[in-house]
Amino acid sequence: MAIDDERSFRPKAGSVRSDIPRLGKAKSFLTVAKKIARQHRNRPSKSAQLSGAAKIKGRPEGRQIGPGVKRGRGAAFARSRSLSGGWRYSRPGMRRVIVKARYVREAGRNGRGAAHLRYIQRDGTARDGERGQLYSAEEDHCDGGIFLERGREDRHQFRLIVSPEDGAELSDLAGYTRDLMSRIEVDLGTRLDWVAVNHHNTGHPHVHVIIRGVDELGEDLVINGDYLAHGIRERASELATLELGLVSELEQRHKIVREIDQDRFTRIDRALIDNTTNNLVDLRQGDDETSNSIDRSHRLRRLSKLAKMGLARELDPAVWELKPDLAATLREIGERGDIIRTMQKALKAEGMVRDPLALEIHDAPTPKRIVGRILDNYLNDELGDRISLVIDAIDGHTHHVSGISPEMIEDARIGSVIEIGPAEVGLRSSDRTIASLADNGIFHPSIHLEHLDKGSDHETYVAAHVRRLEVLRRAGIVERIDADRWRISADFEERVSAFNASRNCQTRIRILSNFDLETQIGSDGATWLDRRLLATDAGDLSPSGFGIEVRDAMAARREHLIEQGDATRQRNGRILYRRNLLSVLQEREVSRVGAELSASSGLPFRPTRDGENVKGTFTATRQLASGKFALIEKAHEFTLVPWRPVMDRQLGREVHGQMRGGTVSWQFGRQKGLGI
């Protein structure tokens, strides 16, 4: 054996194992070393550095796209652009295309995928103002329900908005989208399952694309971050340029000129910011700037516009100072302008004219109570899930409220009358009852039951307080000693108020009526107009706008009630309404609807009286003028009872409760009594 061989050190690794089982599966030294090496060279690509901190919607603020250049499908395409000098869509003459992308987890399981699909297919988005048509790679008319069913178990989905600047000049937007998706499939190396809808309801036609989060083998589809941020945009720009040709210098000049007087963030503003030093822009013309005199004139004209807006000021001839928050302010102004145009469009669609000074824009939660009818609802961000509402209110103003959860207005429609107000942060009635009955810091459900009136079954009422205590126990506010003893602290009310305030941070919404004023006037049910007539206080009704329409509708409803014998007019002009008017009208409508359902289903309808027990299977809901009702089926009959939000999760299940005071006190599950 050679001397070198005797003295050389050749370690031999043994089998991979872990001395600490709780750490999970052991990793080899080579795997760990490779991971550390990747982390140390995990830097943004050159293209990402050239284009700034590109971000994808849905990612945490401040997270850059560059580090993921070696991971996910499309990474090879991103690397090729990094090596060849950057992304080509920014080169002179290329057609501009805006691409927004978002990654959404479990959209098929939580119902958000269906809600988004309904939104992008809503009325008024097609070229002729009709409902948007869903299409795919092979079909011009495809079924969104089937697409959702295929992706119900997908871990995620991708949502894209592709908006070519010159989209109105493209001969076939659907064909353009299919070509784009074909190129994306080549770049990603897999077939994609996608659907799309063309929108022509804005100044720039654009396309909404939804991509399932699986590849052609059914595995999770992981797309490289740089490709999402830049690659799709490059392919879209290439296709638009291929069809329309390169942008000529004259065409580019006209586009720049149109941006000079716009109240939004423009390319000229971006160029000004890129050339600032300590917020100063020096446009004094030198000998080497004669070839750029046209661009300089555009910037000077834009600066004059910004000065009128209070966002810039001239310190010396051709030396300007920009506001530090120029970009953010211009973007906010642009968004506000878009909102105002949306509100005016919604009013125009209903044939209404409102004073521009009567348009109010709110960020949720709203600081005041608003009552009015819904004119329009749309997504805040067309890739997201939050809803914006345009409301024509009884105060004579038209309000725009954003950031609404879709579940809060699930039953509302265009024309529905709703009430929006700030979240309630005080104590609930159950919290006050618990605090008042606590004896030396101990609350006894059995003692609570003894305090109630005799002769009625109040166990379900007390059980509701026990369930509330269980919620507060999980929040660390109360302590459960046993089934009949709960420890209540001395600062119980203060802690519960803080707990309610932390949970109720959203705007509070109540649907007053799902029917418009015209339908309510002739309805046989207990309508919102009836409640206003009985309240007799019309001080919140404006003498203009929707307020005057409500006044006229109340007068017409009053005459209808007189004709039906539910009200009488005395000689002095005073109106007397039937005793228990709302209950009588509700019973009348429920009986009519029950008879109609009985005729169609073959099951007899039996109304439920106050104090009567309700038991059966909750099968459906019905929207009536008197409100929302639940259909409860028994073996050989059915009934209609007022619906409550707590019933949402009980659809298709057996429920039981007791009718009390016009509503039902429900008890779900098999458990009875006060035990937990």
Helical content band: 25-40%
CATH class of the largest domain: Alpha Beta
Shape: globular
Q: What is the count of helical runs?
A: 20
Number of domains: 6
Strand content range: 15-25%
Structure, described:
The protein folds into six domains: 45-244, BirA Bifunctional Protein, domain 2 (2-Layer Sandwich); 249-284 and 294-324, Orthogonal Bundle (Arc Repressor Mutant, subunit A); 329-421, no CATH class; 429-503, Arc Repressor Mutant, subunit A (Orthogonal Bundle); 515-578, no CATH class; 590-667, OB fold (Dihydrolipoamide Acetyltransferase, E2P), CATH 2.40.50. Mean pLDDT is 82; it is low at 18-24, 42-69, 287-291 and 670-676. The strands form six sheets. The chain has a six-stranded mixed β-sheet with strand order 9-12-11-10-13-17, covered by helices on one side. The protein has a five-stranded antiparallel β-sheet with strand order 1-3-5-4-2, covered by helices on one side. Strands 22-21-20-23-24 form a five-stranded antiparallel β-sheet. Helix content is 35%, strand content 20%. The chain has 676 residues and is an alpha+beta fold. The protein is globular.
